[in-house]
Design goal:
This protein is α+β, with helices and mostly antiparallel strands. It has one helix at residues 53-87, and strands at 25-27, 32-34, 40-41, 94-97, 102-108, 112-118, 123-128, 132-137. It is built from 1 helix and 8 strands. It has a 5-stranded antiparallel beta sheet, with helices on one face. It is rod-shaped, with a radius of gyration of 39 Å.
Length: 141
Amino acid sequence: MNNIWILAEAGQELDETANDSMPEAIDQETESITTEDGSQTAPSDEETPPQNPLMSFLPLIVIFIVMYFFLMRGPKKKQQKHTQMVKSLQKNDKVQTIGGIIGTVMEVRENEVILKIDETSNTRIKMSKGAIGSVLSDDRA
């Protein structure tokens, strides 16, 4: 099982037992490495420390953290802010719907809001609370 690869002197053919695919041979007596051109190099005494597996996954972990803040945390905070704004609606608040209709809140029910959109003809519409886009001003006393 112990195959010793011996390179012949420069310019001569390899021994019959040597494999052409092996560019280097290890001389076990001196523990040096002999290359194809006949030069010998000593093995390095410095051992490289094993790489921490966490360091190889660090870029992947950073990408997931950034994706969390941009893709999940931002919209969640915006949804919470909208829910809080809808819960605080009161009569006489001036609001704008997501469709662009501006009106005054006349009545707030459990799942809907009644808006007065025209002062002269007293036009009112029922809207879902989720359709309220923003509160324009607070006319609270």
